[in-house]
Each structure stands twice: as structure tokens, then as C-alpha cells.
Amino acid sequence: MMETERKSFWKSGHTPTLFSSFLYFDMSFMVWVMIGPLAVIIAADYPMDPLQKAQLVALPILGGSILRLVLGALTDYIGPKLTGQIGMLATLVPLVIGWKFVHSLDQLYVVALLLGVAGASFAAALPLAGQWYPKEHQGLAMGIAGAGNSGTVLSTLFANRIAQHFGSWEVVFGLAIIPIAIVFIIFTIFARNSPHRPAPKKLSHYASVLRQGDAWVFCMFYAVTFGGFVGLSNYLTIFFNAQYGLSAVRAADFTTLCVIAGSFFRPLGGYLSDRFGGIRMLTILFCGAGVMLALVASMPPLVAVVSILFAGMMCLGAGNGAVFQLVPQRFASELGLMTGIVGAAGGLGGFALPMLLGKLYQTTGSYTPGFICLSGIVLLALGLLVFMHLRWRTTWAAAGGVAAAAPVTAMSSRMES
């Protein structure tokens, strides 16, 4: 598109808000997945079987899934900036409890569930950024804000090292309060609500959206892409420790390599979806992720499995950007609402993944069945995408209204080319 026909990306929105959203999501994501890399060290204090370990790392994802609906509603009614501020203050609660007041595994489960408020940041951070940008730049804007899932890298790289240095995993919770406080200040100063923010939705609007089949389809896709990314991010340290006998720090380091791929390819997935179409990109990425997870099921040597998981996580991370390039095209006026709903579905997918791997490993003594199941789920999502692509050629054009009609020409040309 010619420069005279549309503004450049950096002139089309509000850059301070975009990067404030990124920082908020980044630090929140760091806190949200913190228990994942720490699980091996925590197990030394509270011995757990494979299913209990899976439950521990899955509970923050479940909490995030539930609370995203709450923050999604708050985003609509009080605005994404105030919602984000409330979210960061609420995140301090499980951090303080985990730092000073945990004395049993049951108490730790409660802390893990409460950490979900950090994962719920998704429902405020993405609308805050996305509402500033026009449709042609939604993929990149949402990708940059969503790249805050790179906070996972901070947890996998430093959490176990800090725990070993201080001789306590609890101190990691206490130190995490510092970056949350700093980002709260930055966010408060620089973030701004978009003047084009849609009016608050009534409860009937939620029911109306959920009656639309496309909403459920996007939920399924995001349960696979984001659920796959965050579920593996939380579980891979346990996997590397159990399958390859790596120490807690070494297992988390290899997890970091895999997480980097998913984190930093999310903006690229959004950008390429802007250029070539989200449906086309998602088709390619589902294929890649399905193949990679099938290869992991063979339990190859460590170097090979890390390379395969790197490629698989890259596909899942980029797939997150592709899904959220499509969501605003179909549900532009319900973006805050849909972000919460779709994000919640992603969290449920992330909760199910560790539970599936942990249960099958406890039952069979092998991770092969679990990864075969994961590969099959991704390929089923690919089949659904192909089917929906054929329907969307006509249904999006016929849906009417601003949310569906405005992007039809661009979307149709991308899908048909």
C-alpha cells in the first residue's frame, strides 16, 4: 500500500502505550509462569508424583483462564489502563504469600492458582494497544504487545539461579515484586486509553458473541497455539529433568531456548499475517507445529529434541500472532470482549496440556503417548481451519455490520490469492 494511502505503522497509533502494554504483559507473564521452572526445586521441599507436578504448573494457567474473563469485562467497563493497574496491584498478593506464608503443598497450590491474575493481563494489555491501531496494522500491534510472553524467558533463565544463589525458592517470589512495581509506575505515566475505545458492552453482548460460531472457532485455535506455548513453557523444565536427567538449572536453560522461539516469533507471525493473510499463515504454522510435536514423541537425543521443540514453539508463538490478526478483522467492535474470551480459551488449553502429559507419563512411564496426542490435536485444528476457510469466503462477506464488512475486501483478496 502506498504511503499516501495509509500512515506508517509507527505513525498510526500511540507508541508509548504500545510499549507500556508490552512491559505490563512481559512482567506479568514472567510472574505467571514462574512456578514452572521452579517446580523441580520445589519438589525437593514438597515431594510430588508426576501428576501433582503437572497440577502445580497447570494451576496458574487455570487461574489466568478464569480471571481473563473478569479482566476482559473490566476492560470494557472501566477501560484497559485502569484494569491493567488493578491487575498489577492484585499480582502482588500471591507474590507476598508465596514469599512469606507458604508452609505446605496445599498452600502452594492456592498461590499457584492466584498467580493467574498475572496471566489475566492479556485481557487488558492487548486491547489497550490494539485499540490504537487500524485494521491493516492490527497483526503487528497485537504481536508486539503480545510478545510480552517473552517474560517466560526471564523466569526460565533466572528463577532457578536466584533460588540456588539464595538457597530458597521463596525469595524468587519476593524479588519479583520489584519489577512489577517499576512497570506499574511506567505504565501509569505513559499508557493511555484510545479515544476510539468502543462503548462498554452489556452482558447480553457476551451471550450474543458466544452464539456466533466464529467466536468458538477462534477459541479453539487459540487453545492450540497459545495453550500449546504456555503449557509447554510451564512443563518443559519437568520434562527435561524427568526424561533426560538434567538438573533444575540446566533443564530450565534448555526450556529457555525453546521459549525464546515462541516469544519472539509472535510479532513476526502478526506481521506476516498482515502481509499474507492470517489464514494462510495459520495453515502453515499448524502444519509445522503438528509435525514437530510428532517428532518429539520419538524421544530423540537431547540436542535433537531441543532443536525440534525450538521449531515447534516457533510455530505456536507465531500462530498466536496469526490468530490475533484474524480476531480484530471479524470482531473489531468487540475486541476487548473477544480478547478476554479467546484468551480464556488459550489458558484452558495451557492448563490441559501439562495435565495430559503428566497423567499419561504417570500411567505409561513414557512421554511418547502425550506428545502423539498433542500432535494429533494440532492436526485436528488444521483440519478445522481448512473447513472454516471455505465457509469464511462467503460468511464473512455476508455477516454485515462494521465488524465484518470493513475488512472483507482485504481479507477476501488475501484468502483468494
Automatic annotation (TrEMBL):
Domain of life of the native organism: Bacteria
KW Transcription regulation (keyword) present: no
Signal peptide per UniProt: none
Membrane topology note: Multi-pass membrane protein
Keyword terms of this UniProt record: Membrane, Nitrate assimilation, Transmembrane, Transmembrane helix, Transport
Domain Major facilitator superfamily (MFS) profile per the UniProt entry, residue ranges: 16-393
SUPFAM superfamilies: MFS general substrate transporter
UniProt cross-references to Pfam families, sorted A to Z: MFS_1
Location(s) in or outside the cell: Cell membrane
Major site of localization recorded for this protein: membrane
Entries under InterPro entries matching the protein: MFS (IPR011701), MFS_dom (IPR020846), MFS_trans_sf (IPR036259), NO3_transporter (IPR044772)
Entry's transmembrane regions: 21-44, 56-74, 86-102, 108-128, 140-159, 171-194, 215-238, 277-296, 302-323, 335-357, 369-387
Keyword Transport: yes
Family from the record: Belongs to the major facilitator superfamily. Nitrate/nitrite porter (TC 2.A.1.8) family.
PANTHER family per UniProt: HIGH-AFFINITY NITRATE TRANSPORTER 2.3 (PTHR23515)
Protein name listed in UniProt: Nitrate transporter
Source species taxonomy: Bacteria, Bacillati, Bacillota, Bacilli, Bacillales
